Amino acid sequence: MTSNPLFSAINQDELHRRGLLFILSSPSGAGKSTIARMILESDEDISLSVSVTTRPPREGELDGVDYHFIDDAEFQALVDDNALLEWAHVFDHKYGTPKSAIKQGLKDGKDFLFDIDWQGTQQLYQRAEGDVVRVFILPPSIEQLNERLRKRGTDSEEVINRRMAKAKSEISHWDGYDFVVINDDVDACFDKVCEILHAERMRRARQTGLIDFVRDLTPPD
Ligand code: ADP
Ligand code: 5GP
Q: What are the residues facing 98 on neighbouring strands?
């Protein structure tokens, strides 16, 4: 039984903590969007950082949910207004992370999931090193990667060939990440990514509520 007056029913999850920026990257087709979706469906404490992009929507993608789909002029206006935390050219289109919501959200203990490439990861890391957790997803083989891009059925033959041609250079960035997970079995990969997320939430530096808790645990004699 506890005699701590501030924390009479201790539930560590209720102590205040700073949020984190959880980045998932992979060569296109390795499964990062699939894993991201599974996390968002199963964990209400993390929300997707919805990027802006000049790419047209794929079938089934919703504006404001998967991306904010904007044109080149609108994208340039966001860059000029310094309204993006990071942005990059990927496959002929521009992609970027809006700043709004993230700064205050982190203070309020909200976690954000980023499905962004290695260029965006480097920029976010430079701007917010202590808040960033970088996870890279690898396919089990190049053949599997090719098969998954085809199975997804969202891209033309030409686009698939370009994504495959770029896979090698994308994979070469694997060593710029804190964690690397091979997506062979999707459920096993999801479990591993969840373990990383849960462990990162427990980092002392993020558990800002511990300061008061420990002070109260150890009153002066
Ligand atoms: P990315 O976001 O990395 O481009 P997706 O998540 O869109 O990749 O996955 C590409 C395709 O591969 C999708 O059709 C998805 O259902 C499938 N996929 C993802 N993970 C696996 C897996 N472990 N085994 C088989 N197929 C998978
Ligand atoms: P897709 O067109 O398949 O949705 O995404 C293509 C690539 O752009 C993926 O590698 C994805 O991670 C990346 N991407 C998506 N949003 C952003 C973003 O806001 N910033 C950066 N740097 N990359 C992004």
A: 84
**Tens digit of each residue's pLDDT, the chain (221 residues):** 445 555 555 788 888 999 999 999 999 999 999 999 999 999 999 999 989 999 999 889 999 988 999 999 999 999 999 999 899 998 889 999 998 878 888 988 999 999 999 999 999 999 999 999 999 999 999 999 999 999 988 888 898 898 888 899 999 999 999 999 999 999 999 999 999 999 999 999 999 999 999 999 998 88
Q: What is the pTM of this model?
A: 0.88
Pocket test for ligand 1, best of 25, 33, 34 (most atoms within 8 A of CB): 34
Going along the chain from its start, the domains and CATH numbers come out as 15-49+110-217 (3.40.50.300)
- E strands in the chain: 21-25, 46-48, 52-53, 68-69, 84-90, 93-98, 111-115, 132-138, 179-182
Looking from the CA of residue 183, the nearest atom of ligand 1 is 23
Interval between CA 6 and ligand 1 midpoint (Å)? 47
